[in-house]
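question for whoever is on the cluster today: can someone run the full assembly for these? four chains, 1078 residues total. i dont have access anymore since they changed the login thing
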Amino acid sequence: MSSTATPEASGHSHDDGHGHDGHAHGHAEQNFFLKYFWSTDHKIIGFQYLFTGMFMALIGGFAVYAFRMQIAFPGMSVPGYGRVTATDYNALVTTHGSVMIFWVAMPVLIAALGNYLIPLMIGADDMVFPRLNRLSYQLFLLSIVVLIASFFVQGGAFGGAWTSYPPLSAKPEYNLTPLGAPMWLVAVALEFAAFLLGGINFVTTLMNSRAPGMKMFDVPIVIWMIVIASILFMASVGPLVAGAIMLLFDQTVGTGFFDPKKGGDPVLWQHLFWFFGHPEVYVVLLPAMGIVAEVITTFSRKKLFAYKTVIYTAVGTGALSFFVWAHHQFIAGIDPRMANIFSVTTLLISIPVAEMVFVYIATLFGGSIRLTTPMLWALAFIGEFLLGGVTGIFLGSSGADIYFHDTYFVIAHFHYTFFPIAFIAVFAAVTYWFPKMFGKYMNEAWGKVHFWGTIIPFNFIFIPLFLLGARGDHRRIYDYTHFPDLMKPGMQDLRVLATLSLVVLLAFQVVFLVNYFYSAFKGPKAEANPWKANTLEWQAPSPPPHGNFPEGLPTVYRGPYEYSHPDRQDDHWPQNSPS
Amino acid sequence: MDATLDPARSPAPTPRTRRQVVPSAVLGTLFFVVAEVMLFSGMISAFTISKAGALPGMWPMPGQPRLPAEATALNTVLLLLSGVVLFVSQRLFQKKSPVAHWVTLAAWALGASFVALQGVEWTALLASGLTLTSSPLGSFFYLIVGGHALHAVGALLALGWAWLQMARGKLSPGFFFGTQTFWYFVVLMWPVIYARVYF
Amino acid sequence: MLTLACAVCGGGPDPARGSYIVMSIIISLLPLAMLGGILAWVIISARAAEAAPQKTDDGGLPS
Amino acid sequence: MISKYVDSVATFSGDIDHLIWVITAIVGFWFLLAEAVFFYLIIRYAARDGVRAQYVAGEDPKEKRWVAVPHYLTLAFDVWIIFSAISVWQEVKQTMPQADETVRVIAQQWAWTFIHPGADGQLDTADDIRLVDELHVEKGKTIHFELQSRDVLHSFSVPVFRLKQDVIPGRTIRGWFKTTQAGAYDIQCTEICGIGHAIMPARIIIESPEDHAAWLLSQTPATAALTTPTTQTGGMP
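^ ran it for u. tokens below:
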């Protein structure tokens, strides 16, 4: 493993990787490259993941813009892209899907927030394995290089959808991307290796680096969630990596693991893929749920309702998520009897998730709710995610899935879960922790403009897609004019409505980017604890220096959500306050 | 804690050892091992299902050699022995015994001879016509056993480094325990692979 | 054809179906078993560490 | 609900519609209730000067009821949905009523070939009728289909039947449907199958017995003239 794995080295580690620079003033002398690119500081690595994730979101957003325009106005030259051919369309759909899940949701929710928040919120000075952490980001960056390079190779980017089902993905004569397909696979595998290293770090740090006095049940929910998600990721990714290696051999060496003509089985890939693919949904959902817990308790000045229940439901969700994967394959040709079993487990998993949402709603009861920008995002998460959750029931019910499978109903369903996860919750996090990250405030008014400019178009994108899905629109079609039944009156209008709403939504993201970067440099200065929150990161200076807690690591006396305690005058009670 | 301190002026916190319930290196390696076990269980389950789905008389394919299960039994014993020897060396290391590094070297040598014998076996199999693309059995054999061999080589490199540092008296316990945990994974994974793939 | 292409559909011949079901169960339970094992080990170690006098815990930190 | 927009022309499509209606009613009720409570709480407990938030830990069973009761209700409604869903699933996918006719459906990049049994009602005989992208069936007959693929995964989807089934190379997947109404409708490929995925539409033509007999007659002499559709990629068996 790593040679940094000693207790001594895992303490306050300032070294730049060569071990000769171990003192507090040392990092001031580091040049820009060493400080921002070669750093082992968890905050810098968190920022690296955050900004890389933002950059990848731009790529994913551009891809969806191009292909939605093609759907709405088939054959038209898309401004800023040009004509979208069928090959382009498939590549764009694949890029959008894989980038948004693997290179936006995962790095931002798990890696960026995990890296930034875990040491701060558990009162540690850094991760346990700082150099492993840096290696994780470098691998991640390498995966992006491979992915982006695959856009420019001969044959173009892979176009077999983010699920990459063989035989389409296995043979160049089927997918027509002899280099794009293996490069996509290599990029995904590298990215998994990066998050594996990151996840190991998170779990070990939480276990071994908590501030003195901090018991496991004093740990804030968001940290619990990120760590449970990391464990879930580590435990489920193995079979997919095995499948990826087998598929890579099929693509490059000519083995026949998934080729029926050579004794393989194409459905085998689907099992290996979805064994990871479904837990993956919870891998990104849980951190988002954690963010919401932090934000709504702070801005409603309430103790979290039933703290332990939230943790148990998260663990239960994680455990159950290993038993539901085949609901993606109801009509994929598996034994019909299997569908009955997986239908039951799928609906059962709705119970812990629903309970988590109930807990959050119950937390609002009796609160003193201030609708700041982060709070608006957190509340919007609950409101929107509810619709995403309940529409999942249609798809988990085997009988209804026969009709809805692979239609736009599915797309609308998972965007009602993934958009709140990867964007709404992330915006809540980014605006909530902004004063901590940069020591500045973001502009509230522009923040709210961005909020409404995102939430309203979001609903106008995906409610039409629910309707289209219910009317039989199926996925990954670049031009519906070939299907007479899908060109009935009104259907194209809904597609155009969804596309135009998307353009509005994308346009409003400019507001966010300008507000974010302007405020980071020129915003009004923020104090250390502007929201009067309890958790430990707010007790450090803003922005926290290298080592996080210049006065020494805090000692923890109580749980993270003691707001409005009746024995206290103040309505907050920091975790490290002795009395 | 009021935090209006100038971060640049503030002293760094005193370096401290944290209270580790279990050693960080071991815990981190264990989680890595969980992912690795899942990787192998993915491969082995794919293999098992494909094998069970083979048409009668098609596994192994006619004309393809059988796997040398008997010769590999010796290998298996060597590998298991190396795990035991490494366990002994850890005990000696904790007691600061001067012979600890020799015992570690013995464990390393046993592991290395396992890899070497595997290499000999592969050469024979390749010569007799079992290749990666010759049949499903060949594909899975080189995938699973090759995957294990790569892990064994990686673990041997780490173990060799640990031996070198131990001989110099500079070995950090964390590195040793992490490497050891990983080597136990390599050792214990093998009988499962042997039982599933060779028979 | 070398193998049945429906080895993993559960609808194949008995050996294929049996091994598919067994492997599905194993691969679903294995991560839970391993993580449960690690968790149990950590909890037992923590109990043991609490019972023993804490030598590694530094109490001399300013709070 | 769905039949307002998409015709329902198979015996089981009404059952699937009914299932979807049941689920919509259940989850719709819960969704609206949850949203109503949610918005009520946001408005009711908006920050007011001098009003302090309450301190509720939510660990007391009396408080926990607010979460526990909805959670048991969720379970109860889940069971209801599961039973409805599985009964529909069993009807569509797990039972095979006696066939009046069997057709073979061969998918490839990017066309459908439908092999009708012809006048003798048997596949693999000289009078089989082989058509590209067009499937003719007689109204009211129970039809079995055999799905085969020549290259990659495809999915045989007929929205008016609410029916969908993936097609897997190397295997023959069987299923059934029984039509209730004449007309011409889309057959779609709903599993991404390469760059021509969008140009893989076919039509199912459901005919009255007289029309079907006339069509059969018109096709019989032409059987020999039709050949396999042209190969579009190099990956053919």
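summary bc i know u wont read the tokens: Chain D has two domains: 2-94, 101-225. Chain D has three helices and ten strands.
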